[in-house]
Amino acid sequence: MLWVKAFHIIFVVSWFAGLFYLPRIFVNHAMATEPAEIARLKLMERKLYRFVTPIGALAIIFGLWLWFGYGFSGGWLHAKTTLVFLLAGYHLYCGHLVKQFAADKNTRSHVFYRWFNEAPVLLLTAIVILVTVKPF
Ligand code: HEM
């Protein structure tokens, strides 16, 4: 079980690296005016999203493996899984935004994306407290 948990945490950390960085690129993209810079940011967004999506899926697969493979249970796990589905929704919405930016159809300001960038921090904090402290 410890190998499964180790890889669960490795994929979780890698997933969050992408979820923290991609909205930061959106902040810069929403402010960009130079065509060369815009083209570079589009490339970075597309490559990062394509790289981090399978990693997010593996984080969830290894989490479910822990849950169903080793008989974990408790309210904390249901609350955690609910937050993880919110996180997956955030991830998929980032994918939608990558397409919006690629088509030059972004309508939101860099200020919006600065706040948008904070959501994974809040989810990470709540998820880690739930799985470590197991408050209920
Ligand atoms: C549906 C998705 C997920 C499921 C079903 C799941 C389930 C689990 C289970 C059963 C454990 C073992 C708990 C224990 O050993 O006490 C675990 C460990 C852990 N999970 Fe997840 N997890 C999921 C996604 C995530 C995500 C997105 C994060 C991101 C923060 C995360 C962070 C952790 C951490 C840090 C541990 C190690 C806790 C410890 O050793 O005390 N998990 N997970």
What labels would you give this structure?
mainly alpha; 0% strand; 5 helices; elongated; 85% helix; 136 residues
Q: Termini distance?
A: 23 Å
Largest sheet: none
H/E element order: HHHHH
Ligands (ions, cofactors included): protoporphyrin IX containing FE
Judged by helices, strands and strand pairing, the structural class is mainly alpha
Number of domains: 1
* Average pLDDT, all residues: 96
Structural shape: elongated
Rg, Cα atoms, Å = 17 Å
Percent helix: over 70%
* Number of DSSP E strands: 0
Put simply, the count of helices is: 5
Low-confidence stretches: none
Which band does the percent of strand residues land in? under 5%
Describe this structure in words.
With 136 residues, the protein is mainly alpha-helical. The chain has one domain. Helices cover 85% and strands 0% of the residues. The protein has five helices and no strands. Helix 1 (2-31) runs antiparallel to helix 2. The protein starts with a helix and ends with a helix. It binds protoporphyrin IX containing FE. Protoporphyrin IX containing FE is lined by residues 5, 8-9, 12, 59-60, 63-64, 66-67, 72, 77, 81, 84, 87, 124, 127-128, 131-132.
Give a brief outline of the structure:
With 136 residues, this protein is mostly helical. It has helices spanning 2-31, 35-69, 75-102, 110-116, 119-133.
How are the secondary structure elements laid out?
Layout: H1 2-31, H2 35-69, H3 75-102, H4 110-116, H5 119-133
Helix pairs in contact: 1-2, 1-3, 1-4, 2-3, 3-5
Bound molecules: protoporphyrin IX containing FE.
Protoporphyrin IX containing FE is lined by residues 5, 8-9, 12, 59-60, 63-64, 66-67, 72, 77, 81, 84, 87, 124, 127-128, 131-132.
